[in-house]
Amino acid sequence: MDTKVERETTDTEYDVIVLGTGITECILSGLLSVDGKKVLHIDKQDHYGGESASVTLSQLYEKFKQNPISKEDREAKFGRDRDWSVDLIPKFLMANGELTNILIHTDVTRYVDFKQVSGSYVFKQGKIYKVPANEMEAISSPLMGIFEKRRMKKFLEWISSYKEDESSTHQGLDLDKNTMDEVYYKFGLGNSTKEFIGHSMALWTNDDYLNEPARPSFERIVLYCQSVARYGKSPYLYPLYGLGELPQGFARLSAIYGGTYMLDNPIEKVLYTEQGKFKGVETKLGTFNAPLVIADPTYFPEKCKSTGQRVIRAICILNHPVPGTSNADSLQIIIPQSQVSRKNDIYIAVMSDAHHVCSKNHYLAIISTIIETDKPHIELEPAFKLLGPIEEKFMGIAELFEPKEDGSKDNIYLSKSYDSSSHFETMTDDVKDIYFRVTGHPLVLKSRKDSQND
């Protein structure tokens, strides 16, 4: 989808100004427009997506390579530029996750088409294995021995039959008091099974969760199982033509409900009231006022702080499927941190022309992890080895930022940087958190019966 919804405006007064067209900002813009707020959305860049944009192959070379190859050589090797739509920050949607619920709630599914991701894999002792998608697959999985499979089956049965208000289904466990490690112990699960559940199903990036109350892990495993049950094969969905479709879809939603978009319009000055609260912005297209602003960290760097973490991402172009995946056209591989003597997991997201993100007979494999040493490129070696021969490689490092304050003092509400996780659940937590702080009430998701026609 290549949609432009900017419009000329003579208005200067708005309920909300949104700065930046990252996925977080565009979702909030769409949600607030649907709520009846008068929204002005501005971006200094001339395209949607911000830090999480989808780019063409030529844009990828310009961004990451000092001496890019010629257009002729590039097209001879990789095909037409317009066949490529490469995510700078790749993430999958959980089929039953909060972002999917938001898409259904707002009817943005009218503008964006999705295709299932074929499989989810986990790395163990030098090989990759398919993550069992259900109890039957768990029984036949080579990940576990025969007795461990029985214990795993009992664990999954407990998960699926658990009812909050029926203590007989709890098996003596209290999700708010017992740690996840205690839950594993109750079912007699071994270390490798704990690792596979915690990292490939609950999708934790490290093992800190083991000594914390079990409820968040329980809810994450339920989400994983429900997402798999929805379509089978894997719990993940991915938009055709890449994640850049998402901000554009929410931009169209916002425009339908009266929102105004201005791309390629840098902020020249931020205006404040005498009390130090946000008042408006000056741009080349005029001065615009609103009582509050929502923005990504790049617009107010002085109001953000580093989380102390940096993410390295490597975008790899392959001319073959990933070995050991039955020629899957799309998949995720998780390398648990203990398997490669690390503190954080390594994620690999693989897409192909099946999702219209690269030319025929090519694959995109995008690796990401939290940097732990002063030689981050070497940290990705275990992932490179799994991919086989790599035709081209682009690497980038990003520092992660979060707001210093909640926005209530100055009415400036800032989003967090996108983390290294392979899915959108942490990002949608941020969306719901900002929405609550801005509106004073939680985001209630339901399918909209009254959605307007395009």
TrEMBL record:
GO terms for molecular function: Rab GDP-dissociation inhibitor activity. One of its GO terms (cellular component) is cytoplasm. GO terms for biological process: protein transport; small GTPase-mediated signal transduction; vesicle-mediated transport. Signal peptide: none annotated. InterPro entries: FAD/NAD-bd_sf, GDP_dissociation_inhibitor, RabGDI. Coiled coil: none annotated. Belongs to the Rab GDI family. This is Rab GDP dissociation inhibitor. The gene is TDEL0B04350.
